[in-house]
Write a structure and sequence with these properties.
alpha/beta, four-stranded parallel sheet, two-stranded parallel ribbon, 10 helices, 43% helix
Amino acid sequence: KEINESWLSFLDFRNYKDYEKQAQYFRPDVIIHLGAYTDLEYCEKNENDAYITNYISVEHAIRTANKLDARLVYISTAGIFDGKKEFYDELDVPNPLGVYARSKYWGERAVLANAKDSLVVRAGWMMGGGRKKDKKFVKKIVDQIEEGCKVLRIVDDKLGTPTYTFDFAANLWELVEKDHSGLFNMVSSGFTSRLEVAHAIVEELGVAVDIEAVSSTYYPEYFAPRPECERLLNRRLDLYQMNRMRHWRESLSDYLKKKYF
């Protein structure tokens, strides 16, 4: 029952009665369902727990939102594709590779098929949260640098699009306020790779650290299947002229210089 802000309260959203009870108390116009197990290795080793947390809880959200006539916003992921294409827009059909990806894709399908009023938004490689909350790639690189590491070994076979949480939240809320529905990709602009992002972090911090390119097999502890390419296009945002997502380099600079430390 860990929470990281004093204004938050704990809810086990895997429990339908608790989910509905809290929702009935607040009577929200919008329910944003974003909780999930995101550790791919944990999901592979704990398949049932992953599906209960990442999928069954979404069914709870759908039932609750429908009862309250609330809009349901579901946060999905670029990781639901198989990585065989150069990039993916909203018309591409997902082909999830592992337990985590399947559980998130099932959530997408359930929301779009069964929620009365829904918005599904896919994010990419998340950047945000600051030193206290960040558990993603940026923090892992910064931690190594601060621990005195002189050589960073970064995989050169993973392609994607970062997503800055501050831009994501603002763009998401604009979609909600303007009553858009359906499926949207929402990632920072500019295709990149893990290797290029690592170089950019080192450059932004102005530190003397070498970077060595390695393949994913260098890290056997990350055994869960991952697509080689998770690059998304914000096709629908562009069509509606509502794409507020900045280039990932600009967002990374903003994050490290103003929000992280």
